[in-house]
Write a structure and sequence with these properties.
This protein is mainly beta and about 130 residues long. The protein is about 5% helix and about 50% strand.
Length: about 130
């Protein structure tokens, strides 16, 4: 059974940093893509970043490029999202999701329906 557990959320001032972790189990890490998504109150869930377990390729939403970094430790089956220069509009529940590597990942990484396994999420609140 695929399980994903996020941690690392919290309250931070604008301009600050947080590092989220997604601990994964129940599947072979190298065969999966892991994505980070967020959902702010009253808004749709959106893709933030994604990493391919197969080749390490990374993808980012334009709104976070240059500020967020996704990485993975395959030995620990853990994916991290380092978030720097946080903005109040980054306040949301952040979830990680897993999907078997699929063709077209570079185009479809931010599409929620491509991911079948989800964690419970961790709250990130950025104060102004």
């Amino acid at each position: 059974e695929v399980q994903l557990v996020e941690s690392g959320g919290g309250l931070v001032q604008a301009g600050g940093s947080l590092r989220l972790s997604c601990a994964a189990s129940g599947f072979t890490f190298d065969d999966y893509a892991i994505g980070w998504f967020r959902q702010a109150p009253g808004k749709e869930r959106e893709g933030v970043s994604c990493i391919s377990g197969h080749d390490g390729m990374t993808y980012y939403a334009d709104s976070v490029k240059g500020r967020f970094t996704i990485s993975s430790d395959n030995a620990k089956n853990t994916v991290y999202l380092q978030m720097n220069s946080l903005k109040p509009e980054g306040t949301a529940v952040y979830c990680c999701a897993a999907a078997p590597e699929f063709w077209g990942l570079s185009v479809g990484w931010a599409t929620t329906t491509n991911f079948g396994s989800w964690g419970q999420g961790t709250q990130v609140t950025v104060s102004s």
